[in-house]
Amino acid sequence: MALFAVFQTSFLLALLSLRAYQSEVLVEPLPLTPESLNVSIDSAHQYLNLQWSVHSLAYYQELKMLFQIQISRMKTSNVIWVGNYSTVVKRDPVLHWSWKSELPLECATHFVRMRSRVDDAKIPEPRFWSNWSSWKEADAQKSLGRDPLFLFPKDKLVEEGSNVTICYMSRNQQDNISCYLEGQQIHGEQLDSNVSAFKLNKVSFIRKTGTNIFCKVDQKDVIKGIVLFVSKVLEEPKDFSCETQDFKTLTCTWDPGTDTSLPKRSSQSYTLFESFSGKKILCEHKNSCNWQVDSDSQEMYNFTLVAENALGNRSVSVLFSLTHRVHPKTPYNLFLKNVSGTKATVTWKVHPIGNYSTLLCQLDLLGEGNVIQQHNVSIKENGEYLLSELEPDTEYMARVRCADANHFWKWSGSISQKFITAEAGWQGSLCFCLEGPF
Q1: What is the residue-averaged pLDDT of the chain?
Q2: What are 292's strand-pairing partners?
Q3: Burial class (CB in 10 A: 0-12, 13-18, 19+), 85
Q4: Geometric angle at alpha carbon 354, from 352 and 359, rounded to 5°
């Protein structure tokens, strides 16, 4: 019994020691300084791309962490941007983050450093920032060559109304340099003895071939130019609507608004996404798209139309029941028969629309351009109606259009036929029809 008591006491002491050790692990500040920081330059898109690692995740498979990033320009003491990036860090990961520069990166050397702290509920307060990493330099000027004058950015594409920063870099501090926008001199801010920057606010669309900007060295035959491509603003599609004529195909249409296309640049594209089925298609046209109706008789549709170009996207959505969006095709084979002086029989046919084939057709009788009779007729495939109270030897027009009888959406197109009633006393049944269409 005494031996059991000793064993029990030893076990409890060991358990308390383990919990105390775990408690120390939880509250001890973790030395998670970002390591192996690397900075690369994406000149085409004016991004600084950062890559780094965090080692020392000894006790956890993953931790939520916060990284504070500093970016300096020209010298490390000139900090131009400070921001935080939050992410979940797994054991021995490689992390990525990018920063977009308003000033073309070729016109100034940039420096980057970061520090981190744990931002995870598994680690109780207080939580401490790590030490800063060492500064990393990003210098795009090293690859520019030895030309006496450079102007950036090259062939930049922006949306009308944007703010754009351009800059020049001169190899000779003594040069007097003048810059021009569409022939008008512009004035900027000198960043150092070799670099000046110009901020263009709310740039306007001038022409599809771009806006011309150039700089020249006074009294020297040195000139550099760039083209700034300004596109029209991509608009949200207007009047977005979908309908069917046969329950086999849904036709969606919209007004795309202003065309944003530029020479040698891709125009806006349109993608149609249906959320219930999870399907999407790339539309072939800028103002319409055909969607094949599945045989599984899906009733509800939730479409999102996305307009997209190189600078962004706009979207619009519509939710509807398929049976509420029936737009029948135009009736056909409209004829007049048994035409007498006071009566005439009108016949016509309609295109079938699957199982939902009951149509409400509107028959108008026109005389001298005015509607003098109007009749509603429910039909399946063939329509027929007897017109009466007509005047002998008179020209009329019969006109027919149809809509879904269960859920009115839109009238179909109209078909019409002119005819002349028989003279008074005529007992025949001929049709004095006039050739159309009308």
Answers
A1: 87
A2: 249
A3: middle
A4: 55
